[in-house]
Design a protein that fits this description.
By secondary structure, this protein is α+β, with helices and mostly antiparallel strands. It contains three helices and nine strands. Strands 1, 2, 3, 4, 5, 6, 7, 8 and 9 form a nine-stranded antiparallel sheet that branches. The two termini are 15 Å apart.
């Protein structure tokens, strides 16, 4: 999908939970370059939100736990708060569901065959490996071309 197609489907549901699925080829170690490892993520997300208006961000600033919200570290807004452009690529800004029972689901495959994370892990760069469960991102910045489904 391109960013405008994605936004046309989520813009009317601004701030509401929508299930979005995206996938991409994972970055692998040099010795595993013959393997095609794909990571597919399905997550309940919200869009059309200003990062600075997230409660956790406002509270963090008020409590002195973080500084003020800064401009994007890379890229620029093409359509705030939905689309970011960077080096000719469009990205969509999505926010994880606010409910703890709606965690993202990740599926892995190696050369087109379903695989467990554990069987993929040995081939992945450290940047691809699971983070601490408590270290959930405040937002996802997903390449628009990686989005494969938006549930109705």
């Amino acid at each position: 999908m391109n960013a405008n197609e994605i936004i046309s489907q989520v813009e009317s549901r601004r701030g509401r939970h929508v299930k979005v699925t995206w996938q991409r080829v994972a970055k692998v170690l040099k010795g595993a370059s013959s393997l095609l490892i794909v990571k597919r993520t399905s997550a309940w997300v919200r869009s059309g939100i200003d990062y600075a208006n997230l409660n956790v961000v406002k509270e963090g600033i008020a409590n002195g736990e973080r500084g003020e919200v800064q401009p994007l570290p890379w890229g620029e807004w093409i359509q705030f708060p939905f689309i970011i452009g960077h080096k000719g690529t469009e990205y969509v800004r999505l926010y994880p569901a606010t409910f703890d029972n709606l965690k993202p689901e990740v599926e892995w495959s190696i050369n087109g065959r379903p695989a467990s994370y554990e069987s993929c892990e040995q081939y992945l760069l450290s940047s691809e490996k699971r983070k601490d469960e408590d270290d959930r991102p405040l937002c996802f910045t997903v390449k628009a071309e990686s989005v494969i489904d938006i549930a109705d």
